[in-house]
Amino acid sequence: xxxxxxxxxxxxxxxxxxxxxxxxxxxxxxxxxxxxxxxxxxxxxxxxxxxxxxxxxxxxxxxxxxxxxxxxxxxxxxxxxxxxxxxxxxxxxxxxxxxxxxxxxxxxxxxxxxxxxxxxxxxxxxxxxxxxxxxxxxxxxxxxxxxxxxxxxxxxxxxxxxxxxxxxxxxxxxxxxxxxxxxxxxxxxxxxxxxxxxxxxxxxxxxxxxxxxxxxxxxxxxxxxxxxxxxxxxxxxxxxxxxxxxxxxxxxxxxxxxxxxxxxxxxxxxxxxxxxxxxxxxxxxxxxxxxxxxxxxxxxxxxxxxxxxxxxxxxxxxxxxxxxxxxxxxxxxxxxxxxxxxxxxxxxxxxxxxxxxxxxxxxxxxxxxxxxxxxxxxxxxxxxxxxxxxxxxxxxxxxxxxxxxx
Length: 406
Hints:
Radius of gyration: 35 Å
Distance between the termini: 123 Å
Strand content: over 45%
CATH topology of the largest domain: Coagulation Factor XIII, Chain A, domain 1
CATH architecture of the largest domain: Distorted Sandwich
Number of domains: 3
Largest sheet: 8 strands, mixed
Low-confidence stretches: 1-33
Helix content: 10-25%
Structural class: alpha+beta
């Protein structure tokens, strides 16, 4: 199964990268012929008491042009790194049963054969043993199309569904904010802290540490406030996600969301959430009639704000440009749901500076200079030239009169 990668920071790429890092919803050694296989939902989150069991279904669809046989397997997973990328562990390689789940999962079919275009629901059951350890347990169910090779089946791809369960009991819920910083992205995972920016994107990194024994879903937002106390508008895009974890759309917000893909932080691990400020958003209608979001950069945004304040110019005014440094405060709020649905919340803030070229209404010195010269010329004419002309004319008239008398 192939994932078509879009440019960095595009709306779809933003969500997909989060989904892949937080859940690794499929794991593939890809062969192009199976690109149209799909499964849904991509994640199941269940609460199951010790000694009890629950069942759920996975819809598997064969969108290829031929019959496909899918082989099933189960593995545990743990936090691989602070981006949320999981590490999968085969049951035979598992060294700790603390958060293990794979051996509790039973599928109704070891393998399934799907005709061209066929969809089928596959039921699985999670049976929690008595006296099992309370808290989170994590596993994945894989569907693997295979091809014959030397008398055996060679796996060419894996599509996975994550299964996260919580066993009630002595569950320890303990999370904390472990970091918040602002900077620039330097590659896929590289980040450098910075405090002055003149271009987008600007990156925010929020770190959350889970010290308990079950997974936590920490979410939040970053509000941007300028030095005048004004909250900046349309600075973020929030992903709209279905209960099953599927991306269904996005909306413009007056804040930058943190973990709007609802990724989980696994027990005894730290998770780093990346939030991107791409600019000042506005919606446009594309040629296909669909609404899409575009962004203004710093100069475009503040130029349009200045234009809104002044619809026309006086003849002595002109549009001038100057470099402006504006101090911005990023107010971050992050929270998660504790016991009895109690909301635990953390706050932090950072200041940074943005620089941009601002257009402003100033004096049109060329027009003013021309007007000043004209006024001086008029005054010269009125108070110098005219009186001198009158005196000269009077003198000539007197001489002429005196000559006539002789």
